[in-house]
Design brief:
Elements lengths: L8 H20 L2 E4 L5 E4 L9 H4 L10 E8 L5 H5 L1 H14 L3 E7 L11 E7 L1 H10 L11 E4 L4 E5 L7 H14 L41 H11 L3 H8 L4 H12 L11
Parallel strand pairs: 3-4, 3-5, 5-7
Antiparallel strand pairs: 1-2, 6-7
C-alpha cells in the first residue's frame, strides 16, 4: 500500500511506477526463485507443451549457442579412481559435447549438489558405494548401490555415479557419467517403448560388459541424430524442456506421458527404477 499523504509528487510518481512494474511482473511470471545452482529460474506458463515423441525428438532444430554448465562433486572417501583420473574424465566429456556442437564449462565443486532447475546446468556426484546409498536414503530414493552403477535423481535433477567394477578406465567412467547427465536433459533409453531396440548409443542401458565401445570416440559411443536434436532443443528451452518440466524432471513420468500422447506401449524393463 502506498502512503500518498507522506510522499512528495515526485516520490508518489516513482512509487506508483514501481508498484505498477511489480504488478506486471507478477502477472507475467507464476513464480521466481533462486536455487542453489546459482541460476534465477523463471517458471513461465506454457500451454502448448507436446509429449508426442516426434516433438520430443525433433528431426529439425536450431542449435544451442550458449554454454552448458556442469558441476562435478567427488566424494571424500572411496573415490581414488575418480580423483586420479578426473582431468581425463572431464576432458572426454567436454570433447563428447563438443562433437555434438555444444560448448561446456565443467566445474569441480567442494560441496554435495542440490537441485538444478536451469535448462543449461546440471551436476554429477562421483562417490563411493557407501556414500551412494546414503545419498539415495537422504533423497528418499529406494535403490541400492549393489544394483546401480549410476542413477539420475528425477525431481532433484542430479546425476550420481558410484565407483565399482564397471569403472574400468576413464573413457567408460566418462560415458557412464554422461549417460546419467543426459537423463537430466530429458533423454530416455532408446528402448523405452515397445518395438524400439537398443541402438548402441550413449543412452543404452545395457550392462557395460555387453556394450561396444569405439576407442576413437571421446566416451566410446555417440548419440543418435534425433537425440542430438532433443538435447539442443532442451538447452534452448524448446518443447523438450517444457515437457520435462511438466513431468517434474522425472524420466519415468516423461516416458508415461510420451507413451500416452504417441500411442506407444512402455517397455517397463527400460524404466529408470
Amino acid at each position: 500500500m502506498i502512503d500518498c499523504m507522506n510522499l512528495s509528487r515526485r516520490g508518489f510518481v516513482k512509487a506508483t511506477g514501481l508498484a505498477l512494474l511489480a504488478s506486471q511482473v507478477q502477472k507475467t511470471y507464476a513464480q521466481r526463485d533462486l536455487f542453489p545452482d546459482g541460476n534465477m529460474t523463471v517458471f513461465e506458463k506454457r500451454s502448448n507443451v507436446s509429449f508426442k515423441l516426434d516433438d520430443l525428438m525433433p528431426a529439425k532444430y536450431e542449435r544451442f549457442k550458449g554454454i552448458l554448465s556442469l558441476d562435478c562433486y567427488i566424494g571424500e572417501t572411496g573415490t581414488e579412481f575418480f580423483k586420479l583420473h578426473f582431468e581425463e574424465i572431464v576432458n572426454r566429456m567436454e570433447r563428447f559435447f563438443s562433437d555434438v556442437g555444444i560448448k561446456t564449462n565443467v566445474t569441480k565443486v567442494r560441496r554435495k549438489l542440490h537441485r538444478y532447475t536451469s535448462a543449461t546446468s546440471m551436476g554429477v556426484e562421483l562417490i563411493s558405494p557407501e556414500d551412494f546409498d546414503k545419498r539415495m536414503s537422504d533423497l528418499h530414493i529406494p535403490i541400492r548401490a549393489e544394483k546401480f552403477s549410476g542413477f539420475y535423481g528425477g525431481a532433484q535433477r542430479m546425476a550420481f555415479c558410484r565407483y565399482g567394477k564397471e569403472y574400468k578406465n576413464p573413457m567408460i567412467a566418462a560415458k557412464l557419467a554422461t549417460h546419467e547427465i543426459l537423463h537430466g536433459f530429458s533423454l530416455l533409453h532408446p528402448d523405452a517403448f515397445v518395438g524400439m531396440e537398443e541402438d548402441g548409443s550413449v543412452m543404452s542401458r545395457a550392462p557395460t560388459e555387453e556394450q561396444t565401445f569405439n576407442l576413437n570416440l571421446p566416451i566410446g559411443q555417440k548419440l543418435a541424430d534425433r537425440q542430438i536434436g532433443q538435447l539442443h532443443s532442451f538447452l534452448r528451452k524448446g518443447n523438450p524442456y517444457w515437457a520435462f518440466l511438466k513431468a517434474n524432471y522425472d524420466s519415468n513420468s516423461l516416458a508415461i506421458e510420451v507413451a500416452k500422447a504417441s500411442g506407444l506401449s512402455l517397455n517397463t524393463s527400460s524404466m529408470n527404477k
